[in-house]
Each structure stands twice: as C-alpha cells, then as structure tokens.
Amino acid sequence: MSEMFRDKIVIDLTVNGEAVQARVPAGQHAVDFLRQELGLTGAHASCEHGVCGACTIRIDGEAVRGCLTLAAQLDGSDIWTVEGLSDTDAIRDLQQAFIARNALQCGFCTPGMLMAVEELLSKGGVPDRAVIREHLSGNYCRCTGYEAIVDAVESVARARADEVTS
Amino acid sequence: MKASVGGYARATDLQHAITLLEAADGMARVLAGGQSLVAAMNMRLSTGDLLVDISRLSELRGVTDEGDTIRIGALTRHVDVEGNALVRDHAPLLADAVKVIAHAAIRNRGTIGGALALADPAAEFPACVLALGATLHVMGSDGERTIAVEDFFQGLFETELEPEEILTAISIPKAEMGERQVLQEVTRRSGDYALAGLCLVKRQGGHRVTMLSVGEQPELATDAMAKLDDGDIEGAIVSLRAEIDPPSDTKASAKYRRHIAGVLLRRAVDQVTGDAR
Question: Chain A contact for B25, CB < 8 A?
Fold first, then answer.
C-alpha cells in the first residue's frame, strides 16, 4: 500500500538549457530545489504561499509560482530561471532599463519581476500602463512604489516594438 | 514554513489515480495545479498527506462541445478557460471570472476542477458554476456519476465528493439567445480575494444569483432571484441583504459585506440592462 507513495522522487528535467537528474523529497517545492540542490539562488523563497511573486520562474514557457509547484512535478519540464535568462542575454535590455530607471532598490523582488515582465513582453506589442500594472499585481516590491518598474517595462516594450518595425 | 508530506505518487491514468486514492486509506490528497494545496501544505495547514498527482492526466484537460452543453475537463487551467472560444461563446461568465482570479502566474497553473473540489467560499468558480446550473462529473471505484451543482457544495471547503472520488469534468448549459451573465466583485487590490462578489445570470426562465465571500459556501439567493423575476430590483436588494449571513473578519465586517452585496446586485442589474454607471 504505502510503497505506492514515495518519500523521494527521481526527476529528469532541463534547467536553463542543461539536463538535470535529481532525487527530490516529496514535499520540496521547486524554488527550494533550485536554490538548495542546484545553487540557483535567483528565485527567492519568501512568502511561500503564492502572494509575493519573488519565486517566479518559467516552466515550459510560462511564468509560474516556484513556491506553489512541487519539485516532484517538474519531471520532464523545461525550467528557466533569471540566471539562465541573464547568461543568454535574453533580458539584457530589461535589466539595463531596471537599472536606468531605478526600478529596484534592495533587489529582492527583481528576479521575480523580471520573469513576470518577460512573459508579458514576450506576447509582443506595447502594453499600456494599466496592463503592465495588472500583470505585475502578483509581484510585490516594498522599495520602489512600482512607478519606476512600470516605466522600465514600458520603455523596453517601446524599444522592442521599434526594433520590430524598423 | 516547509511542507510536511506523507508521500507522493504520479497517476498515469484515471484508473491508476482511483487505485492510489483507495490505497491511501483516507490520507490521500488529489494534487492538480497545486495553487491552493501547495500553499496550504507550505503553511502546514495540511500535513502528512499522501499526494496523488493527477496533473499529467491529459484526458481531463480541454473543452468540448456536447450539443446543449459544453464540457470542461477538470484539469483545464484558468488561463485556458479564459482563452477558450467555446467558453467565451457559451459560458462567458467563466472567462470573465478568470480575469479576477489571483494573478497571471497562478492562472497559468491553477485548474477549474481544483478550484471546485476545494470549494473555497471566497473563490469565483464555485459561485459561477452554481449560477450557471452546472453538472459535475465524478469518477470513483464504482464508476462514473454526475452531481447537480446545487447538491455539490456542502459547507466550508466541503463537497459531495467521496475521499476515493475525483472530479473529472464540469458540464455547463450553453447560454440561450439573449442570456446575460455578469460577475461583479469588490477587492482592495487586484488579484486579492474579493471582500464580496456576485454572479447574476438572466435567462428566459428567470434570474439566478449567487455570491462569494459572504458565507460558508456559495448558495442561490432565491429570495432575491424571485424579486428580480418580478422586476422588483429594490426589493431584490433588500431580500439579498436579508438572506445572506456574511462573516466579519479582518478584511471586512458583516455589515459592510451586506452593504456591498446590495451595491453589487444593483451594479450587476445595471450591467445586464446596459445602464452601467
């Protein structure tokens, strides 16, 4: 009976483009796995109940809560974290805009912000400020008051749109 | 805090999932999108669960046209409910509801079946499917059965589901010609649980009104519905405020929720009649 349920689960996945195999505890969430087993500390474990967004990672192309996804559920998945998007220069413009616009102070929320923003921007076009705010409503920042973050996102959306049309 | 889990098993098909539920001897928890369950486990509101992960069961995902109804697989994610053409055409209330459920990252994983099986009285989907008069499809060791939504919700986080049963799909009657479906709610911030919310469905056969965050489970506001059927909007507001029994908590007092209920009903009626203010 109980042998049908496992304390440790073997998972095969790719993380930031690299194949990974691991044996994870049944109750471990994805962010603890990334941080503690793989040393990828970009995604932060903060509220751990889905409210703050600091844990946001990309699973199979979509931004999700790393704290509300069990590592055991990642088998076969394609995971990207802020480290991977940084190393591949995929979000260099966004990171530079955050710096230029003072869109971060302590930086704790920033990896989650970047992952959430990138999902919005990947849909193309220039979202208006209300859409940007709504998309980021699940990512808390206690430093900036959000205005500078929205500025940064808007400027990158415009720049990317200009690049496409020019 | 960190979750304390008894064990994990990934179901390979529906029958395997049922077998796992039976083997767990009452300790099983069905894991779908995990957007409420994993949060509850992380906070240790739930410990020692034997998790039956059904999230890979592709047969429980997607929306199909069944003639007079649409059938929504239990594992259909919020983001897919919102984007589905059949849902938008025939049950627009559900697509509208998705916009106010939590945040984009949560809507990318949360499932409609999970939301209904959890039966959180503050959630949108339970109130919506009750207003729409849905039928729920359930699979257990004795085979499949259907449950009318009016019988499904049995109290605070309680449903008619047996411990060895899995909610597999939801059938929604297609909207009639001229039917209107409206969701109104009040939240302090985008994505928060609503202080109170209201669903209004207007059909040829009459009005259906349900509320969220005003009681232990979504219920039909039958007195208000009867008044609306008579065209008595002021009477419906008075009746609605009288027939609900909202809680007082840190977010809002019962008195305030009762007040909001009437305001929401008026807004919903205005929206239906095109007189939005």
Answer: yes
Q: Using the beta-carbon criterion (under 8 Å), do B8 and A6 form an inter-chain contact? A: yes
CB contact under 8 A, B23 and A119: no
What CATH number does domain A91-165 carry, 1.10.150.120, 3.30.1330.10, 3.30.365.10, 1.10.10.10? Answer: 1.10.150.120
CA–CA distance, B17 with B257 (Å, rounded to integer): 40
ipTM of the complex: 0.95
Quick check: B190 contacting A, CB < 8 Å?
yes
The CATH architecture of the domain made up of B182-272 is: 2-Layer Sandwich (3.30)
CB atoms near residue A142 (< 10 Å): 10
Which pTM was predicted? 0.96
CB atoms within 10 A of CB B226: 15
> Could you tell me which CATH class the domain A2-85 is placed in?
alpha beta
Check if B85 contacts A (Cβ < 8 Å).
Answer: no
Which of B 96-155 lie inside 8 A of A, CB atoms?
102-106, 108-109
B199 φ, ψ (degrees, to nearest 5): -110, 135
CATH of the domain spanning B5-52? 3.30.43
Give residue limits of the domains in chain B: 5-52, 61-173, 182-272
Would an 8 Å CB–CB cutoff place B45 in contact with chain A? no
Give the closest-approach CA distance of A159 to chain B in angstroms.
24
pLDDT tens track, chain B, 277 positions: 799 999 999 999 999 999 999 999 999 999 999 999 999 999 999 999 999 999 999 999 999 999 999 999 999 999 999 999 999 999 999 999 999 999 999 999 999 999 999 999 999 999 999 999 999 999 999 999 999 999 999 999 999 999 999 999 999 999 999 999 999 999 999 999 999 999 999 999 999 999 999 999 999 999 999 999 999 999 999 999 999 999 999 999 999 999 999 999 999 999 999 865 4
Rounded to an integer, what distance in angstroms lies between the CA atom of residue B112 and that of residue B199? Answer: 17
Residues of B in contact with A50 (CB under 8 A): 35, 39, 102, 106
Domain B61-173 has CATH 3.30.465.10: yes
